[in-house]
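Worked Example 4.2. Consider the chain below.
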Amino acid sequence: MFIDKERQENIEAIRAGIRQLCKDFPESYWQEKDKQSAYPEEFIQALTKEGWLSVMIPEEYGGAGLGVLEASVILEEINRSGGNAGAGHAQMYTMGAILRHGNEDQKQQYLPKIATGELRLQAFGVTEPNAGSDTTNLDTMAVKKGNKYIVNGQKIWISRSQQSDLMLLLARTTPKKDVKKKTDGLSTFLLDMNDQKDNITINPIDTMINHSTTEIFLENVEIPEENLIGVEGKGFKNILSGMNAERILIASESIGDGKYFIDKGTTYANERVIFNRPIGQNQGVQFPLATSYMNIESAALMRDKAAILFDNGDTSGNEANMCKYLSSEATWEAANNTMDLHGGYGLAKEYHIERKFREARLYKVAPITNNLIVTHIGQHVLGLPRSF
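Applying the procedure from the previous section yields the following structure tokens:
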């Protein structure tokens, strides 16, 4: 996909700006946060202050009015620096439901405050224990009573709920037995978690990476009717476009991780001398690195294509799914190659490889498992029979 000269120059300026910011947050910062299982509050505040998390919010609402491609570059560079953009990425795509499907009052009320950081919208309340990736099978119920919706249910794998003021929530407003299409009967809400904190129970989930992930119990949570986003019963479509943006942005983080591993591996392969020669002179080291580099560059091209299509209004999702698959697979290959060439040092925390190794593994299964992406391409692109 063609990127014009002006946009390319802007992208390069964004890369330079993020690299400069990340110098204040070296790998030792991220290592300490990982050790403490702590949220990188200082980093997120710095990103917010410089306006990086609001780049996709239109200028009239306090953002930069840029596209998914520019947002992708921001997340890529954070991860390439050794950081973890997952701590802030949802701020970019969750607000899209308000922007694309909300009314003008909702946009005026929330988007400027999200842009400045006065309100933090990081929580994306979709996944449930008994539904998993089968989103249309969720059970959380929102019942209309007067001018409010009363919500009861459970969500799981909801990241950053403890660091958010607002949650974009998908809940059922029509029982499953009463809908003709399984994608109907679901509605999107903006939940003020501070207002309803007494009715929300948040339990942290201890995981192999520092990702601020939780399970949530909603008990008689009240949501004003004016916080319904879009049309009641048609919320699944609202979520889908956000999911496609999410997959492009997650792909970008994987690409950043992949480039991190190539950078680290190349440096170490040139510096580490065994048997009187740098280990990078050995084809057993050189070839895997070169192969990983090519695969990551190829994934980046698919990411660029997906982002440009999305920015041009094409939200079909085929390219979004493919770039997420290709980037996570290429990066996991690079992670293993870099771990191998470091030998025992790769397992030593002071080298940071093991931390990024753990983080890179996540995106083969989240926000959607790569197996489901393959089934999507098989069915919707190749026209093969549905496999599940």
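The two ends are 33 Å apart (CA to CA). The chain has three domains: 5-116, 122-233, 237-381. Compare this with Example 4.1 before moving on.
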